[in-house]
Design goal:
Blueprint (H helix, E strand, L loop, with lengths): L12 E2 L3 E3 L5 E3 L7 E2 L10 E4 L2 E4 L4 E2 L1 E6 L13 E6 L13 H4 L9 E2 L2 H10 L4 E4 L8 H13 L3 E6 L5 H8 L4 E5 L5 H8 L4 H13 L3 E8 L7 H15 L5 E5 L14 H13 L5 E4 L9 E2 L6 E6 L2 E5 L28 E6 L2 E8 L3
Parallel strand pairs: 9-11, 11-12, 12-13, 13-14, 14-15, 15-16
Antiparallel strand pairs: 1-6, 2-3, 3-4, 5-6, 7-10, 8-9, 8-20, 17-18, 18-19, 20-21
Helix pairs in contact: 2-3, 3-4, 7-8
Iron/sulfur cluster binds next to loops.
């Protein structure tokens, strides 16, 4: 087989997450997909492939685009609220969700979508110049481009800029430890709470995702939030939401924020209707009844479902309207101004003022403001 992978390509680098198998194939050890590759083959994620006696990453330093977004859009509600995050992704994915909301990026074959490029230092400089307090690896999963993500996070950390991973958490242990040593906050997509859903709809497995959640919560300082997209008829039963929220409360604790987000028909699930707002509200009620303190609704306009309530005095301490923060009742360290209860999260200074704006960025210069994107 003729390979299009070349080590003299400036965006192709050698990796260290693989091992040779007795049958002559090389197995990638980044994620539980465990692609076993002959010479010239690429893995399911497409961005990693075999070149000679190693696995390479073919998209180092390349991106499908950069935007400055509100941190609330990741979504992270307890991490530097109101601040701007320089956000980007690359191409490909290590899952194959039938409902993917970013399928144009996740299923693309690198060269047709990776139109922008930036070194880690360039990205850190641009983030600082634009007043971003964090950089977010999002749009597609940083698991598959972790070497680039780690270098970008390192360059950002030198400038006091935090790093955020938005991920499905489908990783092997060594790669997971290496990536998250560089990350300050994560939103992990817990797609459902049934192995059947993961097998049939996401073409993956549930257990490694639960391992990532346990690891982040109990073995790191990464601030963790979770998102579950509720898909009508697939993962939105009362029983499944009850089981999921009990697990989060018991295994991770009541302070991990959980976002129930609305599905919109997409990709290979165009025939499934959008999530009714009542389903999101009911899921939120179940989570709160099971002891979780911070359960939110997402992808719908729902002021009650996006309000943060102080667990000490019961007052609303952060009111949101889409991605815009209205009332803010916390001090600079995240304590309730009324009762002094410390809220879980990372709070540092006054609430940010970025608002719901979304701004497209080209590394050669900012090319245009796209206006508001609040919901
Ligand atoms: S990271 Fe990519 S190549 Fe490696 S095992 Fe996962 S899907 Fe396969």
């Amino acid at each position: 087989m003729t390979s299009d992978l070349r080590l003299d390509d400036p965006h192709t680098i050698s990796t260290r997450y693989w091992h040779a198998r007795p049958d002559g194939r090389i197995q990638c050890d980044v994620c539980p997909r465990a692609c076993r590759l002959h010479e010239g083959q690429r893995g399911l994620c497409f961005v990693r492939g075999r070149l000679g006696d190693r696995i390479v990453l073919a998209t180092y330093g390349r991106s499908s685009g950069f935007c400055v977004d509100p941190i609330e859009k990741k979504p992270l509600y307890h991490f530097l609220p109101g601040s701007a995050a320089l956000s980007f992704g690359t191409a490909g994915c290590n899952l194959a969700c039938r409902f993917c909301q970013n399928w144009d990026i996740s299923t693309s074959r690198e060269t047709d979508s990776l139109t922008d490029a930036a070194s880690p230092t360039d990205l850190a400089e641009v983030a600082e110049r634009l007043g971003c307090r964090s950089i977010a690896f999002t749009y597609n999963d940083p698991v598959i481009f972790l070497e680039y993500a780690m270098d970008v996070a390192g360059a950002c950390r030198e400038r006091g800029i935090r790093s955020v991973a938005v991920s499905a958490g489908y990783m092997c242990d060594t790669a997971r430890r290496d990536l998250y040593a560089h990350i300050d906050a994560a939103n992990i997509d817990l797609k459902a709470f049934s192995p059947q859903f993961y097998a049939k709809v996401a073409f993956g497995r549930l257990e490694p995702v639960l391992d990532t959640l346990r690891y982040l919560r109990h073995e790191t300082d990464v601030f963790l939030e979770i998102t579950t997209l509720l898909i009508p008829g697939h993962n939105d039963s009362t029983a499944e939401i009850d089981t999921l929220t009990r697990w989060v409360a018991e295994e991770l604790g009541p302070d991990v924020p959980l976002h129930f987000s609305a599905f919109h028909p997409s990709h290979k699930m165009l025939g499934v209707p959008p999530t009714p707002p009542a389903t999101l509200s009911a899921a939120r009620d179940i989570g709160l009844a099971n002891g979780l303190r911070f359960v939110y609704t997402g992808n719908v306009r729902d002021p009650d479902g996006t309000t943060t309530t102080c667990p000490g005095c019961g007052r609303a301490v952060i009111r949101r309207d889409g991605y815009r923060i209205g009332h803010y009742g916390l001090d600079d360290t995240g304590r309730c101004r009324a009762c002094r209860t410390q809220l879980p999260g990372r709070f540092s200074g006054p609430v940010g003022t970025w608002g719901p704006r979304r701004m497209t960025v080209r590394m050669a210069g900012i090319v245009g403001r796209d206006g508001e994107d609040g919901r």
